[in-house]
Amino acid sequence: MTSSKPSLEELCPNPVLLAPMVGLTHYAVRAALADFLPEGKRALWMTEMLNSRRIPSQKPNENPEIYFHDAENGLCPQLLANEEEFIRLSVPRLEAWGSRAIDINMGCPVKKALKHNYGVALMGDPHYAAEVVRMTASRASVPVSVKLRASGIPQEGQVHDFDYLLRFIGGLVEAGASWITLHPRSAGQLRKGAADWSVIARLKRELPVPIIGNGDVQIGEDIDRMKEQSGCDRVMVGRALLAKPWLLRHVPGAGVPDPDPYEQHELYGRFLKGVLRRMKEAYPVEAGLRRMRFLIVYSKAWVEFGEYLYGRVMAAQDYEELEAALERFFSTRQRILERTSLRN
After folding, report:
1. Fewest Cβ atoms closer than 10 Å to its Cβ: which of 17, 160, 168, 225?
2. Domain containing 54 — which CATH number?
3. What's residue 2's pLDDT?
């Protein structure tokens, strides 16, 4: 399927990109991570999930969820959508706010999304899922992609195997999806078990569009292995990137090892201070404190004495106290751990 819209290669020449995460991939995090890109490189920056029912009544930058002052970096909002009217109203707003691409979420397994037939619930209805893509792509001047899991929640009598997945994604591509991001776990797994990268490889062999791989990347070697084993076009990293921002500049197959664990700790500190700097410029204190605490919750598992850092951040009552807590913690030489169970 041909398209005059920009390609993934044009929009995201960097081989590694950030995964969308609720409460985490807001402006301050995106902008601070962008500091770690190699000079001259560009990436796509995924937002938090944005609800198509809310977007039509929102104003740009009215709250941290839709604070888009980093739009020039390559903004890619992730959209929860399933109704034509709200898609029709949301797409032009997202483009006016600076979007370079739009990603449709068909992978979120949380009950709130399932209740409204968003996220992974759409994987139970191939025809309607394709219509959601068609509704979006037909109204967008930018590429539309889809992020999904290896299997959703089957309807009665329905089997979600690889053949089903291939037919499902084939319908999305036919409807106008420019590329696909696969997190190769089932909806029921949530974050448990291992991501099956072989599914990414099979999709890459069968589909005519770029495939982005996502799941179980914690170190640079994981990026190398995913790329080698699956042939994916890009590697998407989630929570590990919040503790290891240098992974953004890892070049698959270049043979460059990760930084020393103590240097990693310094880089993590630089990242958090970059986040705080953007928060002070953009967010009310309460909103900034809440988001910094959430960020530490999901990155501390890789941090030596991460619980101590979390305690100091939780105790901070304003930006000055938060800055002091970060300065104190990162004044001591510590390490970033290579791996965690990712279950915290």
Report:
1. 225
2. 3.20.20.70
3. 43
